[in-house]
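Amino acid chain:
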Amino acid sequence: MSNSKPITGGCQCGAVRYSVEELGRATICHCRMCQKAFGNFFGPLVHGEGFKWTRGEPKYFASSNKVKRGFCVDCGTPLVFDFGKPEVTIGSLDNPELALPVLQVNPADMLSYFKTLHDLPIRKPEDEPHIQDFMSSVENNQHPDYDTKEWPMK
C-alpha cells in the first residue's frame, strides 16, 4: 500500500515518534470506544508492519480486555491501537495520504449523521475575512511532519 520507506509518524508535540516499514489495510472504525478514544465520529487506523518507536514511548490505556491504546502523555495525541498487532492512527502519520481507508467496521455504532457530513456547506475564507486575519496570526507549535534529530526543536 505504501511506496516510501521508512514511513514515519508521531504525536503533535514531537515527544513520541514511530516508523513502520509498510502499511496494511486502512479502516475507519465506528465503535463507541474509538469515538471516545479519538474524540471524533470514528477511529481511522492502519496496520503498520515493522512498527517501532523511534523517540519516546506512549502511555497506554486498556480500553478493553483485548485492546490497549497508546497516546502521548504530553499532548494527548492518539497514536496506536494495539491488540497484539499494532495499528497506527492515520492522522498521526507524517503523510496520512498514504493510508487510504478501504473498509468501515462496526457500523452498528455509526453516528446517524455520518453519511450526510459531506453535504454540509464549506466555509470559504473569502466569505469571512476575519477568519483569514485570525488564521494568519496563528503561530504553529506543532512538530513538523518529518523526523528531527533533536527534540524539542530549537
Notes: The mean pLDDT is 92. The chain is about 10% helix and 30% strand.
